[in-house]
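Thread: iron/sulfur cluster complex, take 2
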Amino acid sequence: MPDLNESRASLQETMTFLGAIASGLEEAIGESANSISYLAGKRLGMQLSSGIEKTGDIELALISVRKVLLDNGCLWHFEAFKTHDRPEMVQPSDDGQDINLVFRDCMIRQSLFTFGHHQKGSLCNMMFGFFSGALQNIMGHDSTLEILHAGENACYKRLIIHSGENGARKAVTQ
Amino acid sequence: MQELEIAVHEQACRGCQMCVDVCPTKVFEFDEEKRLCVVKHAEDCIACLSCAYICPSGAITHANYHVVKNFYRDLAFCKKMEKTI
Ligand code: SF4
Ligand code: SF4
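Output below.
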């Protein structure tokens, strides 16, 4: 248990620091802070997932992303979720396919709450960036992680993999 | 973990429908006859707890759900309380 306490304590310190930077950035440069956090997350996602086996299957790709997060001590637990009226977990969308995810333990949410910052700000964009970077490596497609609901104990998001004609083009030109 | 349970306590509910508006997965339904909210799709609840936080009457309770670990409490305090962070 001492190891766990130590790693959580250092995670807390890092997140406190990140939270302060994100809030300062938001105040100084407004919405551009979102792009900075997104790009930082994307780079991290690409770096940490380099060498991970490629797959075209969203659910397998998400298992890989979860492993990357766990292996790197990132507290971002998520799971795929299907409501009763959704026919399939993975559904075709305009530009590819989508899946809904529930994020439970989240180091970003905890950090925001500690300082009374609002959710859906630039730090949340870091997670969007992380997924985008990791999935670009694993699936070879661009993706969007849209926040459907930011709750107190869990967040609900829609992950869209742009694997359709437009998405493939987008991924190639990036 | 056992299946998540969610309940709206009839005596407490005042029918404001704030839970209906906040719920991202449409778990509640408004019962026009009783003028109260009822749980319609408990299986769709993601345990975000937004409904329980927003309900002005504290009429909504959950059981068997994952409580997010709060690891941002004071370390010394946690040790004293014999809680792990
Ligand atoms: S928010 Fe509370 S009081 Fe209002 S309708 Fe829902 S359960 Fe009833
Ligand atoms: S906890 Fe969240 S998902 Fe569950 S009923 Fe309440 S608002 Fe809806």
